[in-house]
Design a protein that fits this description.
alpha/beta, Rossmann fold, globular
């Protein structure tokens, strides 16, 4: 992991440094566009061909059967079940607190405005499973959709080489009450849910993270369906000070790096000695990890930045706009206003990203690749439309009507004016 001194970096250097490595979505879009066209034409037959090509398994039926779901009951441990129940309870509790309608406001005497939520009628949740079964993402997608009241929730996730799903994924889906779970992954899953096939229903909105091909497919699909956000390879930026714990920080960097070779784990430190201690600890912990090769490759694409103070650290962090931001020091309260761009923030030395990834309650499906500058993470809001209402009584019509007549006339929209004038004359 190379270390850069912030003071030595020009604005151009910083701009180049924060660009995510290996991500050329335009090129990838060109590669996946034929997949979309093929699935739009051939439907399930095309999905089957791409599943065989990319996942190495030939499936006639994509939907997970009730028998498969029920079989998972005896294949997973009681400890796993208990952990999922705790995570689900916390996630549901946090997201239920997000459900609220705007109270009716009287903007002027007799003029009433309010807003209510309406669930999106059909949503597609993509759950990655290429290098690991991310049943936690199943929780993060399905629970907010259920809280929002979405009547149709479609879930797609890649199959294993034997054509099955991981037992943990099946049991979690069964526990959540998922009825439409499909063994399809990659760009083919995104386009199947976009177009709809005989087996896989079409949806109105797509939600969920994935690799570069999934992200590119989602961005193409946005021509036809709504998206949560561009959510590609995962990333973390950790801000450390001289008071940070190098063992903890190294562990947090590696927990991100083991996601995949294209993940980024960025360290920003205000103390050079601490940065070196963290890098030394990385070597120690890396050797003990089962996914060490993948984590090592990720770290080779990552780097450290030495800043003079926390002000510079937050300036760099806001430019990078990380998916996950960890403040690896306990005196963080005064720094929170300095955070402008981040998907989710983990505050204090004991608050590792893993808590948010699984069970604290916040959602882990977050904007990556700098999109934290203009996107939010998944929430109940992701699964609802916000519909506005208004009502005027006679007092409101008399109070507001003359002003609207003037505005409509100035825009030369006579019918707009007439709609008001006729009502005023009737009062």
């Amino acid at each position: 992991m190379k270390t850069y001194k912030y003071a030595d970096l020009s604005e151009t250097d910083i701009s180049e440094l924060v660009v995510r490595q290996g991500v050329d979505l335009n090129l990838i879009k060109e590669r996946v566009l034929p997949v979309w066209k093929d699935i739009a034409t051939r439907g399930d037959a095309a999905v089957r061909d791409y599943t065989k090509q990319f996942d190495g398994v030939d499936l006639d039926q994509f939907k997970v059967t009730e028998a498969e779901l029920e079989a998972s009951e005896r294949l997973v441990s009681d400890e796993f079940k208990a952990a999922i129940k705790v995570a689900a309870k916390n996630i549901r509790k946090f997201h239920e607190a997000q459900v609220s309608d705007l109270e009716k406001i009287e903007t002027m005497p007799g003029v009433f405005c309010w807003r209510q939520n309406r669930p999106i009628e059909s949503v597609g949740c993509y759950i990655p499973g290429g290098t690991a079964p991310l049943f936690s993402t199943l929780l993060m997608s399905v629970i907010p959709a259920q809280v929002a009241g979405c009547p149709e929730i479609i879930v797609c996730t890649p199959p294993q080489k034997d054509g099955s799903l991981h037992a943990e994924m099946c049991w979690t889906a069964q526990y959540l009450g998922v009825k439409n779970l499909f063994k399809v992954g990659g760009a083919q899953a995104i386009f199947a849910m976009t177009e709809g096939t005989t087996q896989i229903p079409a949806v109105l909105k797509l939600v969920g993270p994935g690799n570069q091909y999934v992200t590119a497919a989602k961005m193409l699909a946005s021509e036809k369906v709504a998206l949560d956000m561009p959510a590609g390879p995962s990333e973390v930026l950790i801000i450390a000070t001289k008071d940070s714990n190098p063992v903890f920080v190294a562990a947090d960097l590696l927990s991100q790096a083991e996601h995949g070779a294209d993940s980024e784990a960025i360290l920003v430190g205000t103390d050079e000695t601490m940065i070196e201690a963290i890098k030394a600890e990385l070597k120690i912990q890396l050797s003990t990890l089962p996914r060490s090769a993948m984590a090592e490759k990720s770290l080779s694409n990552s780097y450290a930045v030495l800043t003079e103070d926390l002000k510079q650290a937050f300036t760099f962090s806001n430019t990078y706009a990380p998916e996950h931001l960890i403040l690896a020091f306990d005196d963080y309260e005064s720094c929170l206003p300095d955070i402008v761009n981040a998907g989710s923030v983990f505050c204090g030395s004991l608050t590792c990203e893993s808590f948010g990834d699984y069970a604290s309650g916040t959602n882990h499906t977050l904007p990556t690749s700098g999109f934290a500058k203009n996107y939010s993470g998944v929430s109940v809001d992701t699964f609802v439309k916000k519909m506005t209402f208004q009502s005027l009584d006679s007092v409101g019509c008399k109070n507001l009507g003359p002003h609207v007549e003037i505005l409509a006339e100035k825009e030369e929209l006579q019918a707009h004016k007439n709609a008001v004038t006729l009502r005023l004359k009737s009062l």
